[in-house]
Amino acid sequence: MSTSDAVVVGSGLVGAACALALARAGLRVVLMGGEGPPGAMGDDWDSRIYAVSPGSRDLLDGLGAWQRIPLERAQPVVAMQVAGDAGGRLAFDALEARAEALATIVESRALAAGLWAAIAAEPGIELRVPARASRLAVEHGHAVIALEPGGELRTRLVVGADGANSWVRRVSGMPCRVQPYPQTAVVANFTAARDHRGVARQWFRDDGILALLPLPGRRVSMVWSANMGVADELQALDLPELCERVREASADVTGPLACITAPAAFPLRLQYCRDTVQPRIALVGDAAHAVHPLAGQGLNLGLRDVRGLAAVLAARGAERDCGRLSLLRRHERARREDVLAMMAVTDGLQRLFSSRLPGVGALRNLGLSLTGQLPLIRRALAQHALA
After folding, report:
1. How far apart are CA 78 and CA 318, in angstroms?
2. What share of the chain is helix, strand, coil (3-state, %, to 5)?
């Protein structure tokens, strides 16, 4: 049986990007998971959307995926406006950040289509989808993944890109700190009466954090990180009632709304693994960390993991064994600061705007407004979003 350089477990967005990046780094890669290529794009819209940073866009472009996404399904974000729950305001834009856009809003299905089209053109990737693993063993010089109902894969490196409930992480025994948030993300897409002009908006409210992200045309995508009880209430509303509830909650910036996707809900949690590598095993994306969606950086963090791992392995020089722990530790150290910083920001903001302690509301809104009045800090925030 031949031994591959890497098996990427998990064929979602991060796993597909990882397989492409490692193949471009010169590795012989096997991509396995439960998801195959998405179906053809139709006129309907995917309720799951992502804010792709310019840095992530550059990675996807270099992998041959971005240029395969239909332009009519992508919407640049040229400005961001944030409102506190007691009058605080913060705004920044792409012009101030010296960029064409702060991010690009793309549906999950469109991103998957671009990635799988690039995979189809990449000879260095062997596909095992759909596939299910039953056992993982690390042996001398390689790892073995047993498949159901039979067969096995031998490889020098196993990359766990299989999501927040990662099988690779669990069977490897890597500890992970999990803190559920008392919020659920309710997502849906709408047509709007007013033009969004490429502006993303966010409101910190007593009942959670509401974001409206621009989609192509007069469409917006809602991500409402709603407090417990409110999330159930939103999902129970008839669609016209939901539209009116969102219009009122967003200060009528959209005008009347009409639903184009039914609402879907996702539980939220903070998740962090101190150790993301072992001999012949590395975790990337949600398998290694999960953050609150208020900054829209979950996918971008995962793609930065991919970019970092591929860079380390491409630069390994005479060290041909891509699964050696010393090599993987180099990647882990390089990624730690970025991940911890994003976790601190998102978790800190969630806690700050959830606090009901006397005086905290006035202080947090004052801080938000003061930040908005300091150009250097605004520019720094915008530049971080571009990574």
Report:
1. 45
2. 35, 30, 30
What's the CA angle centered on 231, arms 15 and 14, to 5 degrees? 5
3-44+108-178+269-351 against 79-105+181-267+357-385: fold identical: no
Half-sphere exposure of residue 155: CA atoms within 13 angstroms, side-chain side: 28
The domain spans of the chain are: 3-44+108-178+269-351, 79-105+181-267+357-385
Quick: pLDDT tens for 52-76: 999 999 999 999 999 999 888 999 9
pTM here is: 0.92
What the block records as the tokens of 245 is: 């509830």
> How many Å apart are CA 237 and CA 87, to the nearest integer?
28
Q: Which residues contact 84 (CB under 8 A, 6 or more apart)?
A: 204, 353, 364, 365, 368, 369
Of the candidates 377, 352, 376, 375, the one whose C-alpha atom is nearest the C-alpha of residue 365 is 352
pLDDT one-digit tens code per residue, 250-280 = 999 999 999 999 999 999 999 999 999 999 9
Q: DSSP 3-state assignment of 223?
A: strand
In whole angstroms, give the CA distance from residue 217 to residue 76: 11
Superfamily of domain 79-105+181-267+357-385: D-Amino Acid Oxidase, subunit A, domain 2 (3.30.9.10)
Query: What is the average pLDDT across 161-174?
Result: 96
- Answer whether 145's CB lies under 8 Å from 136's CB: yes
Question: Which superfamily, per CATH, for 3-44+108-178+269-351?
Answer: FAD/NAD(P)-binding domain (3.50.50.60)
Helices (H) and strands (E) counted in the chain, each on its own, are 10, 20
Cβ contact 260:189 at 8 Å: yes
Local structure of 52: helix, strand or coil: strand
Please name the amino acid found at residue 196. Answer: H
Q: Strand locations in 161-280, DSSP E?
A: 177-192, 199-205, 208-215, 219-227, 257-259, 264-272, 277-278
Burial of 189 (0-12, 13-18, 19+ CB in 10 A): buried
